[in-house]
Amino acid sequence: MPALVWWTNAAVLVAAACFDLRTWRVPNWLSIPFLIAGVLFQSIGGRLPGFGRSMAGIALACLLFGIPWFIGAMGMGDLKLAAGVGAWVGPAQLVTAAVFTALVGGAFAVGWALWHGSLGANLDSAGDLLAPWRARPSGLVRKAGDRKASIPYAPAIALGTLLSFLAR
Q1: pLDDT tens-digit map of 109-128
Q2: Looking at CB atoms within 10 Å, which of 19, 46, 47, 142 has the fewest?
Q3: With contact defined as beta carbons under 8 Å apart, do 152 and 22 qualify?
């Protein structure tokens, strides 16, 4: 893995994590150029196979992170950031990064819920996200953006991706 891939990912992911912690958003001006640069870098360095790996990484990120976005468990900024990671590292390493991200995100979520004294409510909300057809009083489901029931997820994506570099 070229040093440029490591340093670019590290810089963008740390910046995205800082923005997400401060504003609960991952800005488009950060994630979209990151994604495009990843496709260009892989295409220039690896020609058509590099372009294919980059596109496969984006598609896998859209699948892995698109499902949580679709059910309301994650924001679109997190999805775009993960797609940018996929563009840079391709599908093989993205699988490793997604596993580490899920582990880190789970640990962050439990810690966040314990810190805010809302572990029970968050577990109920997680169940509601997984079973949306269940009858429940309106207004009980907490989705991405509710600051007590959700976490800024870019730090988990950042740490999970950087750990995936160390695992290789």
Answers
A1: 888 778 877 676 666 666 66
A2: 47
A3: no
